Every structure is written in C-alpha cells, then in structure tokens.
Amino acid sequence: MTLSNTHRQVPDAVSSLTNDPILRLPEVERQTGLKKTYIYALVKKGEFPTPIKLGERASGWLSSEVCQWVQDRVAISRAGGK
To answer: Which of 77, 52, 78 is nearest to 64 (CA)?
Structure first.
C-alpha cells in the first residue's frame, strides 16, 4: 500500500463525519430530554448508544444514533409499549 492510497481514504472519512456530526452531552440532553446521569445509566444497561471517546476527558455521540434512539422511543410510545 502506498501513502497516496491512504490519503485518498481520509477525505471520504471526513465527508461521512460531516454528514453525521458528533454531539456533545449538552446537545444529547437537549435532543432526548434526559439528563446526564440517566443517559449514562441507559448506556450501562445497553439501552442507549455508546459514546465515542474523543479524548482523555471528552466523549460524544453520533447524531444519527441519537436520532434513531429518539425515533425508536416515539414508535414504542405510539404503539403503547414500554
């Protein structure tokens, strides 16, 4: 593999990320109506998307995964489920 092949993949990766931004906790709280403690409790139970580690003390969630979670909650609610 040459370096030029590796560099061609980077713009595609960046392009896909800009179409699916990473949300930080305040935005996730705003979009879900949930607070930090409950979000992390749901993550621990496997009932909410797992955050992406961004750095030593920073994490975030893919917008598409949070949106899908919200849509799933709406569908469950409308169907009369839990």
So the answer is: 52
In 3-state terms, what secondary structure has residue 47?
coil
**Residue 66 · residue 31 · CB < 8 Å:** yes
CA–CA distance, 82 with 75 (Å, rounded to integer): 10
C-alpha atoms less than 13 angstroms from C-alpha of 39 in its C-beta half-sphere: 22
d(CA 7, CA 20) in angstroms, rounded, equals 21
DSSP annotation of 57: T
* Separation CA 2–CA 26 (nearest Å): 41
Helices (H), 22-80: 25-32, 36-44, 63-78
- Convert the pLDDT of each residue in 4-48 to its tens digit: 554 455 555 554 556 999 999 999 999 999 999 999 999 999 999
Answer yes or no: pTM beyond 0.70. yes
Distance CA 22, CA 78 (A): 28
